[in-house]
From TrEMBL, chain A:
Gene3D superfamilies: Luciferase-like domain
SUPFAM superfamilies: Bacterial luciferase-like (SSF51679)
Name of the molecule in the record: Alkanesulfonate monooxygenase SsuD/methylene tetrahydromethanopterin reductase-like flavin-dependent oxidoreductase (Luciferase family)
Alphabetized UniProt keyword annotations: Flavoprotein, FMN, Monooxygenase, Oxidoreductase
Annotated ranges, domain Luciferase-like: 33-317
Lineage of source species: Bacteria, Bacillati, Actinomycetota, Actinomycetes, Kitasatosporales
Family: Belongs to the NtaA/SnaA/DszA monooxygenase family.
Automatic annotation (TrEMBL), chain B:
Domain Luciferase-like: 28-392
Keyword Kinase listed: no
Domain of life of the native organism: Bacteria
Listed SUPFAM superfamilies: Bacterial luciferase-like
Protein name per the record: FMN-dependent oxidoreductase (Nitrilotriacetate monooxygenase family)
Length: 409, 469
C-alpha cells in the first residue's frame, strides 16, 4: 500500500489525544514517565511543543467533572491508576501563548456547565490562541458527577448498559439532544457580535454599532439563553466543534453539531461501515456538507517502536504491570511507524479525513508519532511538511462561517 | 534606634474593561480583547513589581432604553481563561479574577481556581461577587431566581464549600509512586457538603496549587460587606479615594479583624485609583481635565442623565441646562449597570442644585460629578501622595485603572515606581513566588470563613464607576 494516498488530493490530518501519562493505565509507571508532574504546566507545555514540532493539526485534552475511573459509568476507588486533573479549557489557554500553530481542543462537559460560560470560555481560547481553538463537548455519562453539582440527576447506567454503545446511547439520548442544544446556543453566541461590530466612531460617540450585536433568544428544551455574548467575535468566527462517537445517537449529534467527528472502527471494513452510518446521519439531519463539511477522524490507541516486535513486547510488559490486558473503545495498534503509516493510508483511502492517535505512553509514543510516523508520511508525500495556515480551521480546510445575524453588505 | 519601618505600598492593576474610565477615542487606545493587550499590560506591571493583575466581570452587556449600550468600551473575555494564558507569559505577577457566585457552582469554580493556582505556580486570587439580577440571569439556566436576601447567604456558603473542596486533597495525597504502584491515596478528594444552598458530595478532581486556597478578595462596602471581608477575605477593594473617608473606612475594617482571630495585616485594603501623571503638576492637571472631558461625550452626558431621570431625554441639548421635569423614580432605562439603582430622585435634585449654582450645562455637570482622578501630578507629586496616603493609613495600596489599554500604565511604571522604590516603600524585586508572598499573607492563618452576610452589595461589576450624588 505504500505510496498511495487515499481519496486523491485530500490531505491527511493528524491529531493527538493527550491524557495523563498516556492511554495505557500503567503508562505512569514506565521509566520515561513523569507521574509527579502530570498536573504541572511544564509537563503539558513540553508535550504540546513536541506535537507542534510534528506539524499536527491539533491536540485534544480529556476532561470530566469527576475523577477518572476504570469503569465507564461510575467512580472507582482504585489507587493504582492516574487520578486528578486540571480544567482542560484553562490548560489549553495556558498553552496558547507557548505555541503558534497547533490547534488546541479541550473537552468540556455540556450536561452540567452553563452554556453561556462554555461559549465565552472557548471564544476566549480562540482569542488567546489567535484562531487555534477547538471544542470537544461531552455529555456526562456518570450519574455520580451530577452529585458534584446537586442541581439535577442523570441516568444511572448499569453493568449491562455499558457492554453496548447503542444501549448507552439509548439511555443517554436526552443528554445528547440537550448537548446538541448547548452547541447550538454556543454557536449563536459566537455569532452574536458581527465581525465589524466595534466601530469606535468618535463623531457619534459610539464604540460599537448596536445593530451589529444581537440577542440570540435561544430557547432549548431545558434552558434558554438571551445573549448577546460578552465576548466579541473570534478569529475563527466559530471554533471547530469536535466529538467522539460510537453509536447512532452520537453520530446524529455529530451530524447536527460537529465539524470533526472521531469514530472508532477496528478494521478496514468497519471503517467503511461507520462512515456509511455517519453519512446516513448527515443525510437524516439535512446537513449540507458542501457549506458545512464534516471531517471524519478515526481514533487509534498506539504503541510505536522502530524495532519490529518491540511495541508488542512493550504492551505485554505494560499489561503485566497493570495486571490486566489493555482494552479500549478504539483499535489498539502496536508496530513500527512505517506499519502505522501503511494502516493510516489504507484507511484514508476508504474515506477518512484523518486520525486522532492516542499515545499509550507519554512521551514515548508521542515522539514516535512526531519523529517516526510524521517523517514517514512526509516521505510518502502524504502529510504537510510545514504549517500552511495559522488557524485550526485553516489546518482542517474548513471555511470560516459568516455570522448568521450579520446583514449582507 | 531604627526608625519604624515604612509601610509597603501594594499595587495592583486592572485592565480597563466595560466602563467609562477608558478613553477609547485616544489614538493610543488599543484592542480591549486581543490577547496581546492583556499580555502587554500584565508584563508592564510585572516589570513594575506589582502584586497582581485584576479583571472585573460583567456577564451581560449593558442595555440602555432597550438597546445594547453603545457609548462605552464593550466586549471582554472569560476571566479565568485569559488569566491562564497570562500565567504562561508572566512569572511572579498575581492573577485575580472576579467570578460570580450566583451563576456558577462551587465544584466548577473551585476546580478552575485550583487549576489557575497550579498553572501559575501559586498566583491565583478570586474576587467573590454575587448578583440577584434577573437581567443577567437571562443568560443562564439558573435565570434570576435568587431573592436579593438569599444571595448573601449563598455566596458565603459557596465560598465555604469551595474551601472544603480545596481541602479535600491533603498534602501528600498525590503519591505518584511508580515503585509501589500507588498513584493517589485512597479516598483523596472525597467530600460531602450538605447545606442550605448546596447539597453535594463525591470526589474532587484537582489537588490544590501552591497556595492551597487562592487569595480571597471582597468588594462590598456595606456593614455586611465589611464584616464578610473581616471574616473571610484577604483583600478588600473600596471606592473610597478621598483620604478622610478612606481613613475611617480603613480603621473600621481593620478593627473588625480581631473578632475573627486575625491581625490587621491579614486583610489588605486596596481602593481603586486613577492616576494622571505628566512632566509637571500643571501639565498633569490639564491632561486630567482633558481626560474627564473625553470620558463624557455629548451622547454619554445625555445617557447618564437618562439613567438618573429614568426617561428619554434625547431631545435635550447636552450643552444646555438640565431638564426641569421630574425623574421617573421607578423606571430603569439602564440595565446591567450598578449605578443609579437607588435614590435617583434625590440625585436629580442635587445635580440640579449644583448645575444651577455653578451655571453648568448638562455635559459640564456630568463631567463635574463624574469620577475625579485620584492622583494627578508630576511623578514626584504622585509618588509622594501615594506614599502619604498609605503611611497615614488611608489604604494598604491601590488598584490602578489606566485610562487606556494597553500602554496606560507605562508612565506610572517607568516614572512613579522608581520613586516609590527609592523611598523604600515598594519592592525592588519580588522576594517570593506566590501572591500570598507578595501580599505578606504567607504566615497568616487562613480566614475561618462564614462570618455572616456577605459579598458585594451594590454592583456585580467592581469596575463600574459610581457617580456620586
Amino acid at each position: 500500500m505504500t505510496g498511495t494516498t487515499g481519496a486523491p488530493g485530500t490531505p491527511l490530518h493528524l491529531a493527538v489525544a493527550l491524557d495523563g501519562a498516556g492511554w495505557h493505565p500503567a503508562a505512569w509507571r514506565e521509566a520515561g514517565a513523569r507521574p509527579g508532574e502530570l498536573l504541572t504546566a511544564a509537563y503539558w507545555a513540553e508535550l504540546v511543543a513536541e506535537a507542534e514540532r510534528g506539524l499536527l493539526d491539533f491536540v485534544t485534552f480529556e476532561d470530566a467533572l469527576g475523577l477518572q475511573s476504570a469503569a465507564f459509568h461510575q467512580p472507582d476507588d482504585r489507587t493504582d491508576q492516574v487520578r486528578g486533573s486540571v480544567d482542560a479549557v484553562l490548560l489549553a489557554s495556558h498553552l496558547a501563548p507557548l505555541t503558534t500553530r497547533i490547534g488546541l481542543v479541550p473537552t468540556t462537559n455540556v450536561t452540567h456547565t452553563e452554556p453561556f460560560h462554555l461559549a465565552i470560555g472557548i471564544a476566549t481560547l480562540d482569542h488567546a490562541s489567535k484562531g487555534r481553538a477547538g471544542w470537544r463537548p461531552q455529555i456526562s455519562s456518570r450519574a455520580a458527577d451530577a452529585a458534584h453539582f446537586g442541581r439535577r440527576t442523570t441516568p444511572r447506567l448499569t453493568e449491562e448498559d455499558v457492554t453496548d454503545s447503542e444501549l448507552i446511547a439509548k439511555r443517554l439520548r436526552e443528554l445528547f439532544s440537550e448537548g446538541a442544544e448547548v452547541v447550538e446556543a454556543a454557536r449563536r453566541l459566537w455569532d452574536s457580535w458581527d465581525d465589524d461590530a466595534e466601530i469606535r466612531d468618535a463623531a457619534t460617540g459610539r464604540f460599537i454599532d448596536r445593530d451589529k450585536v444581537h440577542h440570540i433568544d435561544f430557547q432549548g428544551t431545558n434552558f434558554s439563553v438571551k445573549g448577546p455574548s460578552i465576548t466579541p467575535r473570534t478569529p475563527q468566527g466559530q471554533p471547530p466543534v469536535v466529538s467522539l462517537a460510537h453509536a447512532s445517537t452520537p453520530y446524529e449529534f455529530a451530524a447536527l453539531s460537529s465539524d470533526v467527528v472521531h469514530v472508532t472502527p477496528h478494521d478496514r471494513a468497519g471503517t467503511g461501515a461507520i462512515l456509511a452510518q455517519v453519512a446516513e446521519a448527515v443525510k437524516r439531519t439535512g446537513r449540507d456538507v458542501t457549506s458545512r463539511p464534516l471531517r471524519t477522524f478515526a481514533d487509534l490507541l498506539v504503541l510505536l517502536d522502530e524495532k519490529p516486535g518491540a511495541a508488542a513486547r512493550r504492551l505485554a510488559r505494560l499489561d503485566e504491570t497493570a495486571g490486566a490486558e489493555l482494552t479500549s473503545d478504539a483499535e489498539i495498534f502496536t508496530g513500527t511507524p512505517g506499519e502505522l503509516a501503511d494502516l493510516l493510508l489504507d484507511r484514508h483511502s476508504v474515506g477518512l479525513d484523518g486520525f486522532r492517535l492516542r499515545p499509550a505512553a507519554l512521551p514515548h509514543d508521542l515522539t514516535a508519532i512526531t519523529r517516526g510516523l510524521v517523517p514517514e508520511l512526509q516521505r510518502r508525500g502524504a502529510f504537510r511538511t510545514e504549517y500552511e495556515s495559522t488557524t485550526l480551521r485553516g489546518h482542517l480546510r474548513l471555511p470560516r462561517p459568516v455570522g448568521r445575524y450579520a446583514k449582507a453588505g | 534606634m531604627p526608625a519604624t519601618p515604612r509601610k509597603q505600598v501594594h499595587l495592583a492593576a486592572q485592565l480597563p474593561g466595560i466602563h467609562n474610565v477608558t478613553v477609547w477615542s485616544d489614538p493610543r487606545s488599543g484592542s480591549q480583547i486581543s490577547i496581546d493587550s492583556f499580555i502587554r499590560l500584565a508584563q508592564t506591571v510585572e516589570r513594575g513589581k506589582f502584586d497582581f493583575f485584576f479583571l472585573a466581570e460583567g456577564l451581560r452587556l449593558r442595555e440602555h432604553k432597550g438597546h445594547v449600550y453603545d457609548l462605552d468600551i464593550a466586549g471582554r473575555p472569560e476571566n479565568l481563561t485569559v488569566l491562564s494564558a497570562l500565567a504562561a507569559v508572566t512569572t511572579r505577577l498575581g492573577l485575580a479574577a472576579t467570578v460570580n457566585a450566583t451563576f456558577n457552582e462551587p465544584y466548577e469554580v473551585a476546580r478552575r481556581f485550583a487549576t489557575l493556582d497550579r498553572l501559575s505556580g501559586g498566583r491565583a486570587a478570586w474576587n467573590v461577587v454575587t448578583s440577584y439580577d434577573a437581567f443577567t440571569g437571562e443568560n443562564f439556566r439558573r435565570g434570576g431566581f435568587l431573592p436579593e436576601a438569599d444571595r448573601y447567604t449563598r455566596a458565603a456558603e459557596f465560598l465555604n464549600t469551595a474551601r472544603e473542596l480545596w481541602d479535600s486533597w491533603a498534602e501528600g495525597d498525590l503519591r505518584a509512586d511508580a515503585a509501589t504502584g500507588e498513584f493517589a491515596r485512597a479516598g483523596a478528594g472525597r467530600f460531602a457538603h450538605h447545606g442550605q444552598h448546596f447539597d453535594i458530595s463525591g470526589r474532587f478532581t484537582t489537588p490544590p496549587g501552591p497556595q492551597g486556597h487562592p487569595v480571597i478578595i471582597q468588594s462590598g462596602e456595606s456593614d455586611a460587606g465589611r464584616e464578610f471581608a473581616a471574616s473571610d477575605a484577604e483583600v478588600i477593594f473600596s471606592k473610597h479615594n478621598r483620604i478622610d473617608a478612606a481613613r475611617s473606612f480603613y480603621r473600621d475594617v481593620k478593627r473588625r479583624l480581631a473578632r475573627y482571630g486575625r491581625s490587621p495585616d491579614d486583610l489588605l485594603i486596596l481602593p481603586t485609583a486613577n492616576v494622571v501623571v505628566a512632566d509637571t503638576d500643571g501639565e498633569a492637571a490639564a491632561y486630567a481635565a482633558e481626560i474627564s472631558r473625553e470620558l463624557v461625550s455629548p451622547q454619554t452626558a445625555i445617557a447618564h442623565l437618562e439613567a438618573v431621570w429614568g426617561r428619554d431625554l434625547s431631545a435635550y441639548d447636552p450643552d444646555g441646562p438640565l431638564p426641569d421635569i421630574e425623574p421617573e423614580d421607578d423606571a430603569h432605562l439602564l440595565k446591567g449597570h450598578s449605578v443609579f439603582r437607588k435614590g435617583r430622585g434625590e440625585t436629580a435634585r442635587q445635580w440640579r442644585k449644583i448645575a444651577e449654582k455653578r451655571n453648568l450645562s448638562i455635559r459640564e455637570l456630568v463631567i463635574e460629578v463624574g469620577g475625579r482622578h485620584t492622583f494627578v501630578g508630576s511623578p514626584r507629586t504622585v509618588a509622594d501622595a501615594i506614599d502619604h496616603y498609605v503611611q497615614s493609613e488611608g489604604a494598604d495600596g491601590f488598584v490602578l485603572v489606566p485610562h487606556f489599554t494597553p500602554g496606560g500604565l507605562d508612565d506610572f511604571v517607568d516614572r512613579v515606581v522608581p520613586l516609590l522604590q527609592e523611598k523604600g516603600v515598594h519592592r525592588d524585586d519580588y522576594t517570593g513566588t506566590t501572591l500570598r508572598d507578595h501580599l505578606g499573607l504567607s504566615g497568616a492563618p487562613r480566614p475561618a470563613g462564614w462570618g455572616g452576610p456577605t459579598a458585594r452589595d451594590e454592583s456585580d461589576d467592581p469596575d463600574e464607576k459610581e457617580i456620586p450624588a
